[in-house]
Amino acid sequence: MTRLYFILRGDNEPLARGELRALLEVFGVNTNIECYTMICTTAHTSSADIAGEIMSRAGYIREAGVLIGVFDAYSEKSAVEVSRIISNGRVHVSVFKSTVSDRVVKSFIETGGLKHGSNVEYRLLFSNGLVFLGLVKHRASYKQLELRARGKPFKRSIELTPELARVLINLSRARKGDLLLDPFAGTGVVLIEAWSMGIRGIGVDVDSIIARGMRENISYFSANSIVLLGDSRALTYKNIDHVVTDLPYGRGASTHRVAVKTLYREFLDKLAEYLTRNGYAVFMTPHWLEEYVDEILPEYGLKITERYYDYVHSSLTRVINVARLI
User: Fold this and answer.
1) Buried b (16+ CB within 10 A) or exposed e, 31-65
2) Alpha-carbon gap, residue 243 to 130, rounded angstroms
3) CATH code for the domain defined by 143-325
4) How far apart are CA 244 and CA 171, in angstroms?
5) Where residue 251 falls among pLDDT bands split at 50, 70, 90?
6) Cβ distance 122 to 91 under 8 Å?
7) Which CATH fold would you assign to the domain 4-139?
């Protein structure tokens, strides 16, 4: 049995932790996790291979590896113990958000006779007064995501980043071969990232220009997705297990003269009709609509099971809602 560690992106740790938990569920790993500043560790898993599968899909997880042990950052005995494990003494050291002081880190390294190194397999990770010793197995590479973002022919400044789109898909618990619906799909970023994970997609947009651009993007990548021009409030869907969408709210993304609250109410009304009992819907709202969404959700037999916040700028924080049928 193997224990694993995962290093999270530091700009939104709650969202990264939620993504990790969702991915463990996607891959059928039944294990407890413990999280500290920028790092989570698992209890025993059957194989280290799961780290690679998670990293192949993750958006907000930076690194994964095998956890060798957890030590007290303030203990000389721990430093000596670590030095006995690492034969050549070379480690790649990271300190997360100054949760362990430079003085303590320096003392630990000197006491253990360790040496800083880059491109070495051993990782020494300091967080919340603890030292995590691990063997790095996988590091995030955003090159393909950047190439997809730059390469697609149709773009908009307000579209989701590929990394965030992947997180939303992962929160929906969609597995390879599953079908995912984005009823307000815009340029198709969610569909493209879902395709890259082996997930089939249906994308809908009411704007003919945007729908045409989305179709160009899907064709450019030869993605296994269907693009529809239509109003998702009027279309009928059945038995959808995974819904991921970023609804418009009139600041850059037009609601086409529909009142924002009316649009959200009608979306939730339809969602309750087609979301399956075991399904997940992940949808984003601006922070100023959070209370309204909470107020009307029970009317449609829906509940929020997870919620995260994504700060954009001083006047906008996006709320990421994970909803299921009651």
Assistant:
1) eebebbbbbbbbeebeebebbebbbebbbbbbbbb
2) 39
3) 3.40.50.150
4) 9
5) low
6) yes
7) VC0802-like (3.30.2130)
